[in-house]
Amino acid sequence: MRAYYSKANKEDKPDLMVKKLRYYARFIVVCLLLNKTHLVRDLVRELSKQIQDYGSTYDPGDQLEWSLVLGEVQAFLDAEPLVILDTESSPVTISQRLQKDTVPPLEPGTEVRLTLQEVIIVGNRKDQVKFSELTVDMFRMLQTLEREPEGLDATEQAANGAQMEKEGETVESEDNIAGKRENPHKYLLYKPTFSQLYTFLASGFKELPPDGVMLVYLSSTGSTGCSKPEDEGAYDFGGVLTNSRKEGEELMKKSKLLKDMHCLHPGDLYPFTRKPLFLVVDSESSEVFRNMPNLFGQPRVCLLSPIVVPAEVVDEIAKGSLFTLFLHCPLTGLLTICKLSDIPIASWERAQRQVGRILEEIARLMMGCRNVDGMYHQFYGDEFLRLLLLRFVFCYCVFRLHRAFKGPAYYPQCHPELPKNEVLEALTVQKQLLDLASTLDIRAMFYEIDESLE
User: Fold this and answer.
1) How far is 330 from 324, CA to CA, in rounded Å?
2) pLDDT tens figures, 73-91
3) What single DSSP character describes residue 319?
4) Residues 6+ apart with CB under 8 A from 101
5) Long-range contact list for 309-314, CB < 8 A, 24+ apart?
6) What element of type H or E holds 100?
């Protein structure tokens, strides 16, 4: 800060001190995005001292608000369900960005038809932990769709090379200007209104090149449909809520026969299926997006969260969705549902190698099965989309075998449907998954292959 704020608490007015607190808050956001967890914790301690100093010096009216900001970032850090410990039992931060060994490679000669170019990340979960308009789910998906920078200047590359758009503000990198994009362009929308969401959907759609894919990620509270469906699900069975930002909105809904005007319905996405669309919906009403018609013959895949979660997991939803956690880091998701809160780094690395082999087996099955819909093959060439597809199957297999997940409503869904026997419930994957459970000493929490799963 080059001593700019060194005398902030000695000024007659609190203006400079408020600027200093805002600087800390923005710096924390940057460090979170760069995965600098240790630095974030140091900054939180410093921010706490500065807020106390601010209150004792000026007795301001907004000290409570700053205390709430401090509580938000602390809750955000505490939302991480798993602690990885080094040999000295100190926490270790593991990056979950895309790396060379994260995703199984394509077979030699495989044609890459489509690449992920535009991403819309929406967070509108009620009461989910967030900091600075970034919910836990949004943060995890954002990290999943970023490449890990390489080289000595990794932090600088991460800060300058990633292209993100938040509330319409875009930062372009030199690689992007030259036509090379290491990371897809992202819009981060925290509790947007319908008009805001639709505006950014249209913007992303407009910017798509001929070989580009737009990914839409919706982490949102569900909305139920009206009582008398009339048009086969486009608007009648509900969707995911957007932000009304108006009081008394219930008064505007005069009848149960009317559609919810503050809801993104499946039919609202139909215009954007004119170009390749990859949809991820994490909501208790996700299934309403399952049967969207392919009106224009373009590739389209939907990955949908379970509509029910086990009772023992319900209270943890505020700290982030389980489905998104599996798409972000499958091993963390597995350990979380098995009630493990920490793991030694050696055990983590050994388990990660097993997870990698499971993903390789899933990849082999998906590409070798003739019954897999061709739309999956078109998306499969892109590393980010391939990783999401493989982790989705991994998530399905875990939920299918885990004893706490007691039926189809507890399993994620996809459209077009993947073959169950050949992919989703393949015996080779189940055997490897149970071997992983044995390695982690959690085998008792899973069904055996020859045991009834119903």
Assistant:
1) 9
2) 999 999 999 999 999 989 9
3) G
4) 356
5) 309/410, 310/337, 310/404, 310/405, 310/406, 310/410, 312/404, 313/337, 313/404
6) none
